[in-house]
Amino acid sequence: MSQGNSGVSVTARQARACTVREALDRVGGKWSIGILIAASHGPIRFTELERQVAGISRRMLTLTLRNLERDGLLHRHVYPTVPPKVEYTATPMARELYESLVALTEWAERHRTAITAARAAYDREHAKVE
Amino acid sequence: MSQGNSGVSVTARQARACTVREALDRVGGKWSIGILIAASHGPIRFTELERQVAGISRRMLTLTLRNLERDGLLHRHVYPTVPPKVEYTATPMARELYESLVALTEWAERHRTAITAARAAYDREHAKVE
DNA sequence: CTGTATCCTTGAGGATACTG
DNA sequence: CAGTATCCTCAAGGATACAG
Q1: d(Cα A58, Cα A47) in Å, to the nearest integer?
Q2: In this structure, is residue B53 part of a structural domain?
Q3: Which terminus of chain A has fewer Cβ atoms in its 10 Å neighbourhood, N or C?
Q4: What is the CATH number of the domain that holds B55?
Q5: What is the residue range of B116's domain?
């Protein structure tokens, strides 16, 4: 964020905040990332997703899949067989997204302990007052 | 996400998903980014934040500030004057976070139109059925 | 000025029975 | 198998009056 922003207007800065939120909204759901990752190395079926993304409900799986498909992050292929067979695959756009998320992952790993410590300190500090 | 994952176990992949969510949780709130950006180029006061982060309610401003402070992303300095004066500043950790978010921003910009188009196509496709 | 307290609304998400 | 439909819960967030 380098102080160098001094010449940039307040509204321009908040516009950037908007762009960031735009990206986060596509990926901020509780299950989006898990699904995207599971679907990123080849086609994967509904039931298999249900197994790999631990804890997800059937409803949320369907909903999140629909949203990701709508945003063009997942491709859905239906085989007209009976019983039905449906495969989901991450699009190139989704793979790029994941690569962008790596920076964030590294940040989380780098500061994990610092954050835990900060929380502990904060809680300690504010428990005294009761 | 490069197919090269083939050798990586399913659980290892989902563990990565966890780390990503960890980072997103710190920044996923509706207002975190806006506040962080506003506080990232020097100390800023409560009222000034209320003005710059357009649309935020007083309650959410307070809550989000407390959370960010607790996680060690904001520093809060109180001047013992009357009326009170409080300044918030982004910590170095928060600035690093923003830099990690840049990749995400660029992704959003690069694919903005593609996503809009994908949505339009999807909606068109699914409106026909009614 | 910088909050806190209170009340309210909404939407995300969970559980699960049912269906083509 | 791959969903949809239904009902329910809870936490995020909004509005705003009040307080030190």
Answers
A1: 9
A2: yes
A3: C
A4: 1.10.10.10
A5: 25-127
The model's pTM is 0.92
How far is residue B18's CA from residue A41's CA, in Å, rounded to a whole number? 18
Tokens read off for A8: 């940039």
Distance from CA(A30) to C1'(D3), angstroms, rounded: 20
pLDDT exceeds 80 at position A9: yes
How far apart CA B76 and CA B15 sit, in angstroms, is 34
Rounded Cα distance between B124 and B7, Å, is 39
Strand D bases contacted by the protein (CB, 7 Å): 1-6, 12-17, 20
Q: How many domains does chain A have?
A: 1
Mean pLDDT of chain A: 92
Q: What is the pLDDT of residues A60-78, one digit of tens each?
A: 999 999 999 999 999 999 9
How far apart, in whole angstroms, are the C-alpha atoms of residue A61 and residue A98?
19
Express each pLDDT in B9-64 by its tens digit.
999 999 999 999 999 999 999 999 999 999 998 999 999 999 999 999 999 999 99
Give the pLDDT score at A6.
Answer: 64
**Does B105 contact strand D, using a CB cutoff of 7 Å?**
no
B29 touches strand D (CB under 7 A): yes
